[in-house]
Each structure stands twice: as C-alpha cells, then as structure tokens.
C-alpha cells in the first residue's frame, strides 16, 4: 500500500511538472496557432535564471525561505521576458508564414541550450533548493517528498489562473475573438497584436516556472532539460486535445502516473514506452484528444 501511495503522489508531482510546461504550449497553439518548438528553451532559461539567483548572485535571493521564492520569481520573470522578445522579434513577422515559423523556433530551441552550455558548461548544476522542501512527510505509511506537493500546488494555481484568464478577463476574450476573426476585432479599434504578445508572455511564464520548479524536482539543472521535457509536453498537448488547457491537465496526470508505475513495476525506462503506447491507443480511440477544444 505504501508503495502505491508513493508512486501515485510522485506521479502526480511529475504530471504537475509536465502540465506547467504543456499548459503554455497548449495556450499558445490554441489561441495563436503557433507551434512553438522554442518552448523548451524558455523552460531552460527559467531554470538557469532561478539557479543563478538561488546560488547567491542576486541580492536578496537564496536557497531558503523568501530568498528562494525571489529566485523562482526571478527565473520566471527572465523566461517571460525571453518569451516576449521571441514573439516580438521572431514570431510576429512570421504569423502568415507557418513553415518559416516552425524552422525559426526549432533554431531557437537548438541555439539556447548550446548558449547555456557555452556559458556554464554541459554538466548538470546542483539546484540549491530550500532545506524545508528537501524533506519528506508521512502519508498512509509512505514517505512523500515535500517538493512534489509544491509542484502540484503550483500546477493547480496555473490551471485556475489560465481558466480565469480565458473565460473571465477582457484580454482573454479579445484573444479568443481575434483568433476567430482578427480583421473584425482590429476594425473595432482593438490591437490584437498586444493581446497575442500577452498570451506568449503567459505561456513563457508557465514554461519558465516549470523550469524553476523542475530544478527543485530533479535536484539539478542542465542545458538539455528543456528539450527532454518538451517532448513529454508535446505528448501531453496532443493527448489532451490541441489547444485545450483542461485537456492538458488531465493528460499530464495520466502521463505522470503511467510513467511512474510502469518504471517501477516493469524494467526501468519502460515508462517512456508505456506513455507512447498510451498516446497511440488514445489517438486511435479519440483522434481529437481527450477534449479537442480550447477550455
């Protein structure tokens, strides 16, 4: 029983990490029809920004208490800024040229890890997380890592915030209307471009937050971390339904649980294969994914 509880909670933690990465990817694709292959780069920027700040390079930031919160906020802010620059400089001129758009984001996705390797080396760097989050607590006979609950809590906050943004805010409604009929919204005097930049910023912030908390989950950061998590993020987005944030949340939970249980009860590494099989079966039964709509 204790083993099942441990695997379930750690699977939820892993699923929460996948959702933080996939939510921004799903939001950007669903609202802007942009398949952003540079999303993993934004995650890596957030991870390294948080690591740099938590290592004591940013005044007031550190590896404990409020200092760690400041470090995570700094990494998230740096990732958000990078996302805004990416949209303004690279994506905006290519909205009507999707093929070049994909090539450009792939290039950024390859260039950023190479740049991080050139600056800090290709070896993993130990992530200085707070001591309070490095311990465990008891649950039904199992010892659960505290940082898994942090990931789950962050994912829930992001999910609720995105749902409120899409359905209850003026900017969310403007963006949704702009996707349906950009010319009409522009004719009403609304600058759709600013709204699209905001969406890209929110997606980048979610990715950067995932990178920062991913360092806490893995205990280290490395240049290729964003690329590896991006693969599972794409799986989650496809399984949840292209453009559906709620579907991405459900799919992330399923992928995290399947991966953890398969790795434990079968040979190590077969969890990835189990996720691919799950994706194939779901697409055969429901080609549009779990929801197939923006929600």
Short description:
With about 300 residues, the chain is mainly alpha-helical.
Question: How would you describe what is shown here?
Answer:
The protein has 295 residues and is mostly helical. The chain has a single domain, classed as ABC transporter involved in vitamin B12 uptake, BtuC, CATH 1.10.3470. Helices cover 75% and strands 4% of the residues. It is built from eleven helices and four strands; from the N terminus they run ααααβββααααβααα. The chain has helices spanning 2-32, 39-57, 65-91, 98-120, 146-168, 170-180, 182-187, 192-218, 225-240, 245-265, 270-285; strands at 125-126, 136-139, 142-145, 220-221. The strands form two sheets. It has a two-stranded antiparallel sheet. It is globular. The two termini are 36 Å apart. The chain crosses the membrane at residues 6-27, 34-54, 66-90, 102-120, 149-166, 195-218, 230-257, 264-285. Keywords: Amino-acid transport, Cell membrane, Membrane, Transmembrane, Transmembrane helix, Transport.
């Amino acid at each position: 029983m204790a083993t099942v509880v441990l695997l379930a909670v750690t699977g939820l933690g892993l699923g929460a990490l996948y959702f933080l990465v996939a939510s921004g990817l799903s939001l950007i694709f669903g609202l802007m029809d942009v398949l952003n292959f540079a999303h993993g780069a934004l995650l890596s920027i957030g991870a390294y920004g948080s690591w740099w700040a938590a290592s004591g390079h940013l005044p007031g930031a550190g590896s404990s208490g409020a200092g760690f919160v400041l470090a995570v906020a700094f990494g998230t802010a740096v990732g958000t800024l990078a996302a805004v620059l990416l949209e303004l400089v690279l994506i905006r001129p290519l909205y009507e040229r999707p093929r070049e758009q994909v090539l450009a984001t792939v290039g950024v996705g390859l260039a950023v890890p190479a740049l991080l390797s050139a600056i800090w080396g290709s070896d993993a760097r130990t992530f200085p997380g707070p001591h309070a989050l490095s311990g465990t607590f008891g649950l039904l006979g199992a010892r659960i890592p505290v940082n898994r609950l942090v990931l789950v809590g962050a994912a829930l906050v992001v999910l609720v915030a995105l749902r409120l943004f899409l359905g209850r805010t003026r900017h969310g409604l403007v963006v949704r209307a702009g996707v349906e009929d950009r010319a009409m919204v522009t004719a009403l005097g609304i600058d759709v471009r600013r709204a699209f930049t905001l969406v890209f910023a929110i997606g980048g912030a979610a990715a950067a937050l995932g990178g920062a908390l991913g360092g806490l989950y893995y205990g280290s950061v490395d240049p290729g971390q964003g690329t590896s998590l991006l693969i599972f993020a794409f799986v989650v987005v496809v399984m949840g339904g292209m453009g559906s944030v709620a579907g991405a949340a459900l799919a992330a939970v399923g992928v995290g649980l399947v991966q953890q249980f398969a790795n434990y009860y079968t040979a190590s590494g077969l969890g990835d294969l189990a996720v691919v099989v799950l994706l194939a079966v779901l697409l055969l039964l429901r080609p549009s994914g779990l929801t197939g709509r923006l929600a």
